[in-house]
Amino acid sequence: MVGKLLSDGNEGFFIFAVMKRKIYVPLLFILFFAACSKPAAPTFLRMEIDEVQNITKSQVYVKANAVFNNPNSVAGKLVRTDLKVVVNDVEVGTVQQDTTSVIPVNSDFKVPVSVNFPLKKVFSNKKGVLKGVLNALLDKKAKVRYEGTITIDFLKVNFDVPVDYEGELVIK
Predict the structure, then answer these.
(1) Distance spanning both ends of the chain, measured CA to CA
(2) CA distance 105 to 154
(3) For residue 67, is pLDDT > 50?
(4) Which residues have a Cβ under 8 Å from the Cβ of 48 and sit 6 or more positions away?
(5) pLDDT tens for residues 84-110?
(6) How far apart are CA 158 and CA 46, in angstroms?
(7) Could you please report the per-residue DSSP string of 107-164?
């Protein structure tokens, strides 16, 4: 067949077809490997702590958002949240959520984090619970720390993204 193509005066067409194939095949391989690259791990940016949502005689309810960045061109899925919460150097509890939320493509996203903790566990001191609560209310703030991981799935690849944040909790 090649001999027939060359003998019919189609030498230019044959050479063009071979050159075309030599250009397109490597180009296809490059595109294939670029499209199939492994997803990158999201990064923890910050914690947005809302004010104390509610204080009762025995409980404090705090709502916050962990903010991350997804550098991938594919959407992901939030799989699990596993955080330890420390207020005024006292571990008050853990946030463990098995939820599935969609993570948007190439953007920042928020993961809601809520925690309840006993009032007297955090604000008691040697002079008693009432004195500790009064001091916290007068200062209008408490030191809060979130540490742990949030698991996110991209194309069946799980990433445990570390969260380590320390800030102030405003009490209003």
Answers:
(1) 86
(2) 11
(3) yes
(4) 64, 65, 66, 67, 110
(5) 998 888 888 888 887 778 889 999 999
(6) 21
(7) EEEEEEEEEEEEHHHHH-BTTBHHHHHHHHHHHTEEEEEEEEEEEEEETTEEEEEEEE
